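Shipment paperwork, digital attachment
Item: protein structure file
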Amino acid sequence: MTHVCYCADDFALHPSISTAIIELIAQQRLHATSCMTQSPDWSQAAQQLKPYAAQADLGLHLNFTHAFDDKTVAFPLNTLMVKAWLRLLDRQQIRDSITEQWNAFIEALGQAPDFIDGHQHVHQFPVIREVLIEFLKEQNFKGWVRNLRHTLVVSPYQFKTYMLMQLGSATLNHLCMQNNFKQNQFFAGIYDFQQIDYAHLNQKWLSQAQDNLLIMCHPAQDLIKNTDPITIARLQEYRYLASEQFAIDCQNYQITLSRIGVNA
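Attachment content:
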């Protein structure tokens, strides 16, 4: 059997997302979720998530692109990318935001994150990754860091996959290895969030799965609002992950769903 971990991003971004994630964890379809601790829904959602800490990895979904309010350190994605690669980001501002998000996680859940990743993969960007690694060293972090270096490539999403892999995964991998931080080895879940046969897409990932593959997902129980660009994708992901078809697909491809096994 091949062990696969489905990880849901964006916990606490919206109640429909949080409810879907908790339900799927309870059904043992998900075994990890990453949390947006700047959300006004975070404190309440965290209390609902806390009882599942023993059966799923709970991570910090580091955010620098979603403005929850006017105090959030956030930029449009393209702006953040330009500032990061030109090294125009304020290191102290980045550190202060990481600290705030980290502390909010611990305050609500009573534990350090099991892992760190980034909303729109920003944790692998220049400046952010260096500040993050320095911060994690100071915190004596024992968890793992999400890495896209070995991502499964499936048609027709080759370009997007390679682009995301090139946005810092190799350097982040080097920094983590240099500082003895654990990482996932294999990754999947990249597509364009359009209306597709999501079951068929997952079958492609599962057919290529290697042991301890981490698959990113973004489920929600209901359509959220027009301002969420992936609201339809969230709904179709939830419906598949909660379905009997998902269980059948796992059985057909000899997949065991579990927490990710990350070796030091």
